[in-house]
Amino acid sequence: MEFSKSLFPVLALIGAAVFIAASLFFRPAALVEKRALIAPPPQLEYFSFGFQMPIADSLWIRAIQDMDYCEAKGEEGHCRNNSWLYQTLDTISRLAPDFYQTYSIGGVALSILVSDVEGGAKILEKGTRVFPKKQRLLYLAGYHALYEEKDKKKAAYYYQKCAENGGTPWIYSLAAGLYDETGERELALKIYEGLKDQDISEALLERVREKLKLPAQLSQ
Questions:
Q1: Which residues, including other chains, have CB under 8 Å from residue 205's CB and lie 6 or more apart?
Q2: What sign does the dihedral 125-141-77-87 (CA atoms) show?
Q3: Res. 91 pLDDT band, cuts 50 70 90
Q4: Burial 10-38 (b: 16+ CB within 10 A, else e)
Q5: Which of 52, 56, 87, 108 is deepest in the core (most CB within 10 A)?
Protein backbone atom coordinates (compact mmCIF):
# COMPACT_ATOMS: atom_id res chain seq x y z
CA MET A 1 0.00 0.00 0.00
CA GLU A 2 1.47 3.34 -1.07
CA PHE A 3 1.60 6.32 1.28
CA SER A 4 -0.30 9.37 0.20
CA LYS A 5 1.97 12.12 -1.04
CA SER A 6 0.33 14.50 1.42
CA LEU A 7 1.63 12.39 4.31
CA PHE A 8 5.27 12.59 3.29
CA PRO A 9 6.00 16.10 4.66
CA VAL A 10 4.32 15.20 7.96
CA LEU A 11 6.31 12.00 8.34
CA ALA A 12 9.52 13.79 7.35
CA LEU A 13 8.89 16.50 9.94
CA ILE A 14 8.25 13.92 12.63
CA GLY A 15 11.46 12.14 11.71
CA ALA A 16 13.45 15.38 11.81
CA ALA A 17 11.94 16.32 15.15
CA VAL A 18 12.81 12.93 16.63
CA PHE A 19 16.37 13.22 15.32
CA ILE A 20 16.87 16.69 16.77
CA ALA A 21 15.37 15.70 20.10
CA ALA A 22 17.55 12.62 20.27
CA SER A 23 20.72 14.53 19.43
CA LEU A 24 20.07 17.55 21.63
CA PHE A 25 18.17 16.31 24.64
CA PHE A 26 18.58 12.55 25.04
CA ARG A 27 22.22 11.74 25.65
CA PRO A 28 23.90 8.80 27.39
CA ALA A 29 24.68 9.34 31.08
CA ALA A 30 28.40 9.35 30.35
CA LEU A 31 27.97 12.27 27.95
CA VAL A 32 25.73 14.16 30.36
CA GLU A 33 28.35 13.89 33.08
CA LYS A 34 30.96 15.33 30.72
CA ARG A 35 28.47 17.95 29.48
CA ALA A 36 29.16 16.92 25.90
CA LEU A 37 26.68 18.63 23.59
CA ILE A 38 26.02 17.52 20.03
CA ALA A 39 25.88 20.16 17.30
CA PRO A 40 22.91 20.27 14.90
CA PRO A 41 23.30 18.03 11.83
CA PRO A 42 24.87 19.72 8.77
CA GLN A 43 22.56 21.32 6.21
CA LEU A 44 19.55 20.93 8.50
CA GLU A 45 17.81 23.75 6.63
CA TYR A 46 17.33 21.44 3.65
CA PHE A 47 15.37 18.95 5.75
CA SER A 48 13.09 21.40 7.57
CA PHE A 49 10.18 20.99 5.09
CA GLY A 50 8.79 24.46 5.71
CA PHE A 51 9.22 24.35 9.48
CA GLN A 52 12.36 26.46 9.63
CA MET A 53 11.14 28.80 12.38
CA PRO A 54 9.98 26.13 14.89
CA ILE A 55 13.26 24.26 14.46
CA ALA A 56 15.25 27.49 14.80
CA ASP A 57 13.31 28.36 17.96
CA SER A 58 14.11 24.95 19.46
CA LEU A 59 17.80 25.34 18.68
CA TRP A 60 17.82 28.87 20.15
CA ILE A 61 16.29 27.60 23.40
CA ARG A 62 19.00 24.94 23.47
CA ALA A 63 21.72 27.51 22.78
CA ILE A 64 20.75 30.03 25.46
CA GLN A 65 20.82 27.27 28.08
CA ASP A 66 24.48 26.53 27.37
CA MET A 67 25.99 29.69 25.93
CA ASP A 68 29.03 29.26 28.16
CA TYR A 69 29.74 25.74 26.86
CA CYS A 70 33.10 25.08 25.22
CA GLU A 71 33.86 21.50 24.27
CA ALA A 72 37.59 21.97 23.63
CA LYS A 73 39.92 24.85 24.44
CA GLY A 74 42.92 25.78 22.36
CA GLU A 75 45.64 28.37 22.77
CA GLU A 76 45.31 30.95 25.55
CA GLY A 77 42.14 29.26 26.77
CA HIS A 78 40.19 30.18 23.63
CA CYS A 79 37.53 27.75 22.50
CA ARG A 80 38.60 25.93 19.37
CA ASN A 81 37.23 27.13 16.05
CA ASN A 82 33.92 25.74 14.83
CA SER A 83 32.71 25.40 18.41
CA TRP A 84 29.40 23.82 19.38
CA LEU A 85 27.87 27.24 20.03
CA TYR A 86 29.07 28.58 16.68
CA GLN A 87 27.65 25.58 14.79
CA THR A 88 24.32 25.95 16.58
CA LEU A 89 24.08 29.70 15.92
CA ASP A 90 25.19 29.29 12.32
CA THR A 91 22.46 26.69 11.78
CA ILE A 92 19.88 29.04 13.31
CA SER A 93 21.04 31.83 11.00
CA ARG A 94 20.47 29.58 7.98
CA LEU A 95 17.06 28.42 9.16
CA ALA A 96 15.88 31.89 10.20
CA PRO A 97 18.17 34.60 8.74
CA ASP A 98 16.03 37.43 10.14
CA PHE A 99 16.27 36.25 13.76
CA TYR A 100 18.16 39.28 15.08
CA GLN A 101 19.16 37.86 18.47
CA THR A 102 21.28 35.20 16.78
CA TYR A 103 23.72 37.95 15.85
CA SER A 104 23.26 40.59 18.55
CA ILE A 105 23.39 38.12 21.46
CA GLY A 106 24.98 35.01 19.98
CA GLY A 107 27.80 36.81 18.20
CA VAL A 108 28.93 38.54 21.38
CA ALA A 109 28.45 35.42 23.51
CA LEU A 110 30.84 33.49 21.29
CA SER A 111 33.67 35.85 22.16
CA ILE A 112 32.79 36.93 25.69
CA LEU A 113 31.57 33.63 27.12
CA VAL A 114 33.55 30.96 25.30
CA SER A 115 36.35 32.98 23.62
CA ASP A 116 35.52 31.68 20.15
CA VAL A 117 36.70 34.91 18.55
CA GLU A 118 36.65 33.63 14.99
CA GLY A 119 33.14 32.25 15.38
CA GLY A 120 31.95 35.52 16.90
CA ALA A 121 33.38 37.44 13.97
CA LYS A 122 31.62 35.21 11.44
CA ILE A 123 28.24 35.51 13.15
CA LEU A 124 28.49 39.29 13.58
CA GLU A 125 29.62 39.77 9.98
CA LYS A 126 26.71 37.68 8.77
CA GLY A 127 24.39 39.75 10.93
CA THR A 128 25.59 43.05 9.46
CA ARG A 129 24.90 41.68 5.99
CA VAL A 130 21.34 40.74 6.96
CA PHE A 131 20.80 43.97 8.95
CA PRO A 132 23.11 46.51 7.27
CA LYS A 133 21.45 49.48 8.99
CA LYS A 134 21.11 48.16 12.55
CA GLN A 135 23.10 50.73 14.51
CA ARG A 136 23.56 48.58 17.62
CA LEU A 137 24.72 45.54 15.63
CA LEU A 138 27.21 47.64 13.67
CA TYR A 139 28.57 49.01 16.94
CA LEU A 140 28.92 45.50 18.37
CA ALA A 141 30.76 44.39 15.23
CA GLY A 142 33.10 47.36 15.60
CA TYR A 143 33.72 46.57 19.25
CA HIS A 144 34.43 42.94 18.44
CA ALA A 145 36.83 43.84 15.64
CA LEU A 146 38.72 46.32 17.82
CA TYR A 147 38.96 44.53 21.16
CA GLU A 148 38.67 40.85 20.25
CA GLU A 149 40.20 40.63 16.77
CA LYS A 150 42.62 43.56 17.23
CA ASP A 151 41.74 44.73 13.71
CA LYS A 152 41.57 48.53 13.77
CA LYS A 153 40.79 48.97 10.09
CA LYS A 154 37.86 46.59 10.28
CA ALA A 155 36.64 48.26 13.46
CA ALA A 156 36.84 51.68 11.83
CA TYR A 157 34.65 50.46 8.96
CA TYR A 158 31.92 49.20 11.30
CA TYR A 159 32.08 52.29 13.51
CA GLN A 160 31.73 54.48 10.44
CA LYS A 161 28.67 52.52 9.28
CA CYS A 162 27.27 52.71 12.80
CA ALA A 163 27.62 56.49 12.86
CA GLU A 164 26.03 56.79 9.40
CA ASN A 165 23.01 54.82 10.61
CA GLY A 166 22.11 56.80 13.70
CA GLY A 167 25.07 56.31 16.00
CA THR A 168 26.14 59.19 18.21
CA PRO A 169 28.49 61.71 16.55
CA TRP A 170 31.52 60.78 18.65
CA ILE A 171 31.58 57.41 16.86
CA TYR A 172 32.59 59.32 13.72
CA SER A 173 35.53 60.62 15.71
CA LEU A 174 36.45 57.10 16.80
CA ALA A 175 36.26 55.78 13.22
CA ALA A 176 38.37 58.65 11.88
CA GLY A 177 41.03 58.11 14.52
CA LEU A 178 41.23 54.37 13.81
CA TYR A 179 41.50 54.95 10.06
CA ASP A 180 44.31 57.42 10.68
CA GLU A 181 46.14 54.92 12.93
CA THR A 182 46.00 52.24 10.23
CA GLY A 183 47.34 54.48 7.48
CA GLU A 184 43.96 55.16 5.87
CA ARG A 185 44.33 58.91 6.26
CA GLU A 186 42.31 59.73 3.16
CA LEU A 187 39.30 57.88 4.58
CA ALA A 188 39.81 59.63 7.92
CA LEU A 189 39.79 63.01 6.20
CA LYS A 190 36.62 62.10 4.28
CA ILE A 191 34.90 61.32 7.57
CA TYR A 192 36.01 64.69 8.92
CA GLU A 193 34.71 66.50 5.83
CA GLY A 194 31.42 64.65 6.18
CA LEU A 195 31.14 65.76 9.80
CA LYS A 196 31.60 69.38 8.82
CA ASP A 197 28.54 69.14 6.58
CA GLN A 198 26.37 68.02 9.50
CA ASP A 199 25.03 69.85 12.52
CA ILE A 200 28.00 68.84 14.66
CA SER A 201 29.33 70.86 17.55
CA GLU A 202 32.63 72.66 17.16
CA ALA A 203 33.89 70.84 20.26
CA LEU A 204 33.50 67.49 18.53
CA LEU A 205 35.12 68.77 15.34
CA GLU A 206 38.02 69.99 17.45
CA ARG A 207 38.41 66.51 18.96
CA VAL A 208 38.53 65.00 15.47
CA ARG A 209 41.11 67.55 14.34
CA GLU A 210 43.23 66.70 17.36
CA LYS A 211 43.04 62.99 16.57
CA LEU A 212 44.00 63.61 12.95
CA LYS A 213 46.51 66.36 13.80
CA LEU A 214 44.75 68.85 11.55
CA PRO A 215 45.17 72.61 11.71
CA ALA A 216 42.31 74.65 13.17
CA GLN A 217 41.74 76.58 9.90
CA LEU A 218 40.26 73.45 8.33
CA SER A 219 37.13 74.14 10.35
CA GLN A 220 36.41 77.13 8.15
A1: 192, 195, 196, 219
A2: negative
A3: very high
A4: eeebeebeeebeeebeebeeeeeeeeebb
A5: 56
Contact 56, 92 (CB under 8 A): yes
Residue 204's pLDDT band (cuts 50, 70, 90):
confident
Cα 33 to Cα 54: distance, rounded to the nearest angstrom: 29
Percent of the chain at pLDDT exceeding 90: 42
The 8 Å CB, 24+ separation contacts for 55-58 are 55/16, 55/20, 55/95, 56/92, 56/95, 56/96, 56/99, 58/20, 58/24
Contact 200, 209 (CB under 8 A): no
Provide the 3-class DSSP secondary structure of residue 73: strand
Dist CA 89 CA 205 (whole Å) = 41
Q: Summarize pLDDT for 129-149 with one digit per residue, the tens.
A: 999 999 999 999 999 999 999
**Distance in angstroms between the alpha carbons of the first and the last residue of the chain:** 86
